[in-house]
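Structure tokens please, single chain.
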Amino acid sequence: MSDRIIPLHVSEEFNEEDSLAFTDVIVVLYLEGLPFHTHESEDYYESGPLTEAVIGSFALGCAVGIDFQKKIPLVLQQTHPNEIEYIIANCTSALDEQIKHAKDTMQVLEPEDFVDELLKALEDSENIDTETAQNAISMSFEYGLIMAHSHRSAALVLRNAFDRSQAEALKDFEEENDDELPSGPDPYQTLQSLGAEIMEAYESDIGFSQVD
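Here you go.
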């Protein structure tokens, strides 16, 4: 694609061990542009915008996992080496319970419901340090990946629900009913389109090592 959101460049001295993991790229994209202030050389993010980024990264994880099922182990291997099966099993168990609860209560599936505990933890803090913010986004993105791995149909519902919400927010912004552009790396793109662009850029400029 000609206009990449992430212009990744690899030098001739590229070392795979030192390269950005795919999840790290997602973290960078979602933290970029979020309001923060610096105190004693440490950056702190506002909880409100950060929670929106967490919801968005979870939904993007669903979208990427749906379209790139075979890449899920490769992404997880970068951040959880030799623990893929354990991570997937633990997260799938939690997702099973969340989906069962939604069905039992006839609850409409929304992305924020699946990262609710994480959101509450962030909302309890007015300002969040950089490491916590990075971990929150990476956890939510990979949780979305595992949702697509274990519950593809639910992931589709969540991806589409987020896209509809973004489209409505964008319409309000363009009609001047809201003075803030919807959050996210590129609110003018669907999650499917955004995920495909990020994946193409990453594979072209860095790439994955294969899981044994």
